[in-house]
Structures are given as C-alpha cells and as structure tokens.
Amino acid sequence: MSEVLGDRLSSQAFQVAYDGEDGGHSMDVEQLGPALQAFGKLIREANAQLNGKKATVRVFVVSDFEHRCFNINF
After folding, report:
1. Secondary structure element (H or E) that encloses residue 15, with its range
2. pLDDT in tens, 1-60
3. Is 6 exposed, middle or buried (0-12, 13-18, 19+ CB in 10 A)?
4. What residue segments make up the domains of the chain, in order of their start?
5. Measuring CA to CA, which residue among 19, 23, 22, 18 is closest to residue 39?
6. Which pTM value belongs to this model?
7. What are the Cα distances from residue 58, in Å, to 46, 53, 68?
C-alpha cells in the first residue's frame, strides 16, 4: 500500500492469508476477484475517513505462489 501525503510518499506492506474453506487451499476465482476489489475499497475508504483529502492510498498486490497455497501481499 502506498500513501501520498502532500509531496511525500510512504509505503506499508502487509499480508492477508487465505487457506480455503475447511483448509481446502482453494478459492473460486469468481470470488477472489471481487474479494480483492472489496479489500482495496475498504482500505481507500478507511484512509478517506482518517485523512480526508490530505492523503490518497493505492493498494498493490505482490504475490509469490506456493504449491496448493497462496499469500497475497499488499
């Protein structure tokens, strides 16, 4: 996640892990896309509440896939 405050850019990395329903290590792609979009919207709306127009936020995904499991790094 990158945040612009005035002319300064700050960055914060965080991670969300999903291991599937009942530990199944899978997720329907039709659920994954909307879930990622909703997560980005949540972050942007939280930033707007906290910072108003003083800062904008952009959320980027950085991923390294592993066998039967994945992490999505923001």
Report:
1. strand 15-18
2. 655 656 677 888 888 777 777 777 777 888 888 988 998 999 999 999 999 988 888 888
3. exposed
4. 2-73
5. 18
6. 0.66
7. 12, 14, 29
